[in-house]
Design brief:
- The complex is a heterodimer of chains A (304) and B (266).
- Chain A is α/β, with parallel strands linked by helices and 304 residues long.
- Chain A has helices at 40-47, 69-72, 91-101, 106-119, 135-146, 165-180, 192-198, 216-223, 238-242, 268-281, 295-303, and strands spanning 2-11, 14-24, 29-33, 55-60, 63-64, 76-79, 153-157, 184-188, 201-206, 209-214, 227-232, 252-253, 259-263, 285-291.
- Chain A has 2 domains: 2-221, P-loop containing nucleotide triphosphate hydrolases (Rossmann fold); 223-292, Alpha-Beta Plaits, CATH 3.30.70.
- Helix content of chain A is 36%, strand content 26%.
- In chain A, the strands form 3 sheets. A 6-stranded mixed β-sheet of chain A has the order 6-7-8-3-9-10, sandwiched between helices. In chain A, strands 2-1-4-5 form a 4-stranded antiparallel β-sheet.
- The longest helix of chain A is centred in the middle third of the chain and has 16 residues, at 165-180.
- Chain A is elongated, with a radius of gyration of 24 Å.
- The two termini of chain A are 31 Å apart.
- Chain B is mostly helical.
- Helices cover 77% and strands 0% of the residues of chain B.
- Chain B starts with a helix and ends with a helix.
- Classes of the chains: A alpha/beta (304), B mainly alpha (266).
- Chains A and B meet through helix 3 of A and helix 1 and helix 5 of B.
- Bound molecules: adenosine-5'-triphosphate and magnesium ion.
- Adenosine-5'-triphosphate is lined by residues 11-12, 14, 16, 34, 36-42, 81 of chain A.
Chain lengths: 304, 266
């Protein structure tokens, strides 16, 4: 559904994208991750026909983003990094306006606006001007605006930034519903749990190139298996305790000086053995836990 | 072709509708529109007017009002720059550009809506002139209508100057400053408030060739108000000159703005 080859874009002093390849099959979610300035917004803007690439090719829904831009605009929805809604108008009037610009007849634009306000929990607020909205309400209105024509392809640049945890989860559910109905979604995010929750495929950008790509599980596997983390009560016990742990040579020492993390080759069984050994040696332990690698670690590993 | 044209018109109307909806949400703005003319008329007509006598005779307040009318139309550039700059900053222009809207509709729609609003403010100014300063159009009805048409055309041209500035600056407040900063002084560097005859030799040609001088002189002629003579070509043929200036500004800035809108940060 989205197919990108060798995409390059340079701003005056900055090579924002330096040869990106990307394939997003129809009806799936691709999460674009990367530190600030990695080129995520630039990639989204090119795919949404706002920016012309210097080099490379990008097709969305079978249409070239440069040559077929006019036709493509009927088939995409965009929620940019900042809520692009008119402060002075009511929420309802905003949605009606954007609907009219998708060439919906007036009555259809109005009923679609009401439907979306309902769906995004803004039915009451829809009658008030947007300048009286909270940041999260604005964000939801902006997302609603990008869904007016139920586009087959949806681009979202940090859609849940600034939302409270409940709104974030509601939005996730909403996005899952859209994807279930067949929408293809490309989203950027700074929240790794969001990518983990939603994305079928994750692409990590770094300085304009793809640093890694794959499913969340693939990426976690790359970084290594489970680990056990031990927090000793006394820093003085660390040396003695370490001798009782498996593969002490691969241990990571935590910043507190009382904390170590070692590989757990047998998962939970390793944990039980470690617990027994430390108990038998009478070394007091404050915390002991088995940890699966998180996407955070993958991300930090790939981007540092 | 026909379809494209039809959507350009319909989309422009939708965009214009947005401007009107916004106005309803800004009662203070409307009040400003109406109070400003009163202040200007009193300030210039009576405070300055009491100290100024025209070299060729005639009532100063009759001389003054066409100048103020032109100033109202010139300042349209500031409000267009501000609102376009604001939309740029908020990403609203990006949203429009990601929608299947006819290419020129966003700018054309707003320019027409902006013009109609500024014509309302011109009407308020005219009313203030009639009531507070005893101003009258003393020519025939056709000439009077032509005078207002020239003022409207000039306002339309200035809207495109402001729009173009707003599309570059991407901030409402900065676009406001970047327009007001040169435009407002420029309305004084003309025959708007005083005849250019008394200006120093190095300044006089600038004032005479200022497009605003041609517009004001044309309006004075067409309204049958006292005017000042100057040997400069634009002031000897003010109607032609102001028409040429306004058309030239539109011909330069409209395509520039539409092009900038379409290829922005591309
Ligand atoms: N209009 C512009 N002019 C010049 N440089 C730009 C412009 N837009 C972006 N850049 C530069 O291009 C690079 C990529 O920017 P981009 O906005 O795509 O990053 P991002 O991954 O979206 O970052 P963030 O997480 O902060 O949103 C950055 O170094 C940025 O400074
Ligand atoms: Mg960004």
């Amino acid at each position: 559904m989205i197919c990108v080859r060798g995409l390059r874009k340079r701003y005056a002093a900055q090579q924002a994208l330096d040869g990106i390849d990307l394939d997003v099959p129809a009806g799936t979610v691709c999460g674009l991750l990367g530190p600030n300035g990695a080129g995520k917004t630039t990639a989204i803007r090119i795919l949404a026909t706002l920016l012309r690439p210097d080099e490379g090719r990008a097709e969305v829904a079978g249409l070239d983003v440069v040559r077929d831009a006019a036709r493509l605009r009927f088939r995409i929805g965009l929620a940019g990094q900042h809520a692009a809604v008119d402060e002075l108008l009511t929420g309802r009037r905003n949605l009606e306006l954007f609907g009219r610009l998708y060439h919906l007849p007036r009555a259809a634009a109005r009923s679609r606006a009401d439907e979306l306000l309902e769906r995004f929990g803004l039915a009451e607020a829809g009658r008030r001007p947007v300048r009286e909205y909270s940041g999260g309400m604005r964000r939801r209105l902006d997302l609603a605006a990008s869904l007016i024509v139920s586009p087959p392809v949806l681009f979202m640049d940090e859609p849940t930034t600034g939302l409270d945890p409940r709104s974030r989860m509601q939005l996730w559910d909403l996005l899952r519903d859209l994807v279930k109905e067949g929408t293809t979604l490309l989203l950027t995010t700074q929240y790794l749990d969001e990518a983990d929750q939603l994305a079928d495929q994750i692409v990590v950008l770094r300085e304009g190139v793809v640093a890694a790509a794959g499913s969340p599980a693939d990426l976690k596997r790359q970084i290594g298996g489970d680990r056990v983390r031990v927090v000793f009560r006394e820093a003085a016990d660390v040396a003695a305790g370490l001798r009782l742990l498996p593969r002490p040579d691969e241990a990571d020492l935590g910043a507190t000086g009382r904390e170590v993390s070692v590989p757990a080759p047998d998962g939970a069984q390793s944990l039980i053995r470690i617990a027994g050994a430390l108990d038998a040696a009478g070394i007091p332990v404050e915390d002991l836990a088995l940890r699966r690698p998180s996407l955070d670690e993958v991300y930090l590993h790939l981007t540092s | 072709m026909y379809e494209t044209l039809r959507w350009t018109v319909l989309d422009s109307l939708t965009i214009a509708g947005r401007t009107y909806s916004r106005l309803k949400a800004q009662p203070a703005e409307i009040a400003g529109f109406l109070v400003f003319p009163v202040i200007m008329t009193v300030l210039f007509g009576y405070v300055f007017g009491s100290a100024i006598t025209l070299p060729n005779g005639g009532d100063y307040r009759d001389y003054l009002m066409p100048g103020i009318f032109m100033q109202v139309m010139a300042m349209t550039a500031t409000s267009s720059a501000t609102t376009v700059g604001e939309d740029m900053a908020r990403g609203i222009i990006d949203r429009f550009r990601s929608q299947p809207i006819a290419r020129s509709a966003v700018l054309v729609g707003r320019s027409v809506a902006d013009l109609s609003m500024h014509l309302l403010s011109l009407a308020a100014m005219v009313l203030a002139g009639i009531v507070l300063a005893g101003w009258r159009a003393r020519g025939d009805a056709g000439a009077t209508a032509a005078g207002f048409a020239l003022l409207a055309l000039f306002g339309f041209a200035m809207i495109w100057v402001g729009t173009y500035i707003g599309l570059w600056i991407k901030s409402g407040a900065q676009a406001d400053a970047a327009t007001f900063g040169w435009l407002f002084p420029m309305t004084f560097l003309a025959n708007t408030f005083v005849p250019t005859e008394g200006l120093p030799a190095w300044l006089k040609p600038i004032a005479d060739w200022n497009p605003m001088s041609a517009v004001v002189a044309a309006a004075r002629d067409l309204f049958g108000n006292p005017t000042s003579v100057s040997s400069a070509w634009p002031l000897r043929h003010p109607v032609t000159a102001s028409l040429l200036w306004s058309v030239a500004i539109v011909v330069v800035f409209l395509p520039l703005a539409v092009r900038r809108y379409r290829t922005m940060s591309r």
